[in-house]
Write a structure and sequence with these properties.
The longest helix is centred in the N-terminal third of the chain and has 23 residues. The chain has 16 helices and 22 strands. The strands form 5 sheets. A 7-stranded mixed β-sheet has the order 15-16-17-14-13-18-19, with helices on both faces. It folds into 2 domains: 293 residues, Aldehyde Dehydrogenase, Chain A, domain 1; 205 residues, Aldehyde Dehydrogenase, Chain A, domain 2, CATH 3.40.309.10. It has 517 residues and is α/β, with parallel strands linked by helices. The radius of gyration is 24 Å and the shape is globular.
Length: 517
Amino acid sequence: MTSLQNYVGGRWLAGDGEPVALFDPSTGVAIGDVRPKGVDFAAVMKHARDVGGPALRGMTFPERAAALKALSKVLHTHRDELIEISGRNGGNTRGDAKFDLDGASGTLAYYAHLGSSLPETPWLPDGDGVQLGRTARFWAQHVLTPRPGVAVHINAFNFPAWGMGEKMACALLAGVPVVTKAGTASAMLAHRIAQLTVESGALPEGAFQFLAGSVTGLLDFCGPQDTVGFTGSARTGNLIRGNAHLLANNVRVNVEADSINSAVLGPDVEVDEDTFTQFVTNVHVDMTQKAGQKCTAVRRILVPAALLDDVKEALVERLEATKVGNVMDDAVRMGPVASAAQHEDVLSGIAQLQAVADTITGGAKIEGPGYFVQPTLLQARDNHADVLHDLEVFGPCATLLPYDGDAVTAVDLVNRAGGCLVSSVYSDDKRWVTELVGGIAPWHGRVWVGSEKTMGQALGPGACLPAAIHGGPGRAGGGEELGGMRGLMPYLQRTAVQGDRSVVGRAFGADAESSAS
């Protein structure tokens, strides 16, 4: 049994209070615990502001980038050890564990590369300068400077490595110290990554602190220069966003929440085409990878009525051939959901969907130890039933929505979810794709377009790549992460510096670095 500790104030600290057990979700056996209390949050935030912040801001962007590169290498070096932990405490197959861990190390490496080419000035010019008056004597240059605050990151259980890594990469490169909270159910992996981060010595003291237990009360110590990043349920995200203290102090809050994503098959696609194969392959992966516990997983599958039988046949064949079981078995392709509570939620959600949809395959738990659920494919009896567009079943479950093939119909159905992280579109009809994407883009952070030419050339829609944004409007949280330099924006302050061009432009413009040297 392992009792996870917190890393705060430059030392490892055991929590106290009633322990919260951590389980192997393949067996239901307790393998560790988290003590939720015992951390002085005021001291944590002070340590980050007074020690970590100045140390980070004393480094150049390329120096901070070098630290990220070192962390990426540490994760890669310990990859096999971390995969084993991911299986034992997260219920991840080896492939699913790699997806999480390589996402973390890859994102850190991406931002290390991006940061290596940034200037060595304490600020970044934001676009070109602009003349404000009749002459250049009155000039403005927008600049981006690190906020002298703290990045508080509250992470979800489904991606303990990638979720933590992507938030850290952006904040640390921007020069802002991190206080990161692990999702409880899978906290053993995040805890080990925290240990490796500290042991690496890549970051200055105070730049990184780790909380294994509860963060209840932490937000009361946030101020106007701090940023809160949250990934999880829409309900919890709304509670954080509506926190009276955060509102009173205008604390920046970035939320990535529930998303009832869609996959839309175009009416032009034929069964023997690569586009059809790509569609079926991606839907199957999204339903079974990490047992469907991905915020980017497809929940609604829009299929032209003329192709419905072919799609059902192809998906059922793949889903029923997917071996489900203990992830320590190399032949297993889908593991359990992460916890007993998650198991109960998924089964309850499937039952609610079954009230308005017919079960094509799956639809029940798997008897025996562990938190297993059958891959479940449903077919809507009424495409407009509210539960189809309101309820995210965070597990291996998706619902077929047969439609008439018209882009206007598809736009209406997709947008009923009220905002999504990503939806995918499969068609080789450019006119149809343009109409559909134009209709759903305002309600999405990403729209992934599959066609004959992307077959074998593109990662599926479920992968959040650091060069493209991750987030979405409305129900999806209204937040935005990653996207290259865009990922640094929550941690930087944009300021318009105004004055004579010979002073402002030379000191703060794009040529500031060369003129300073």
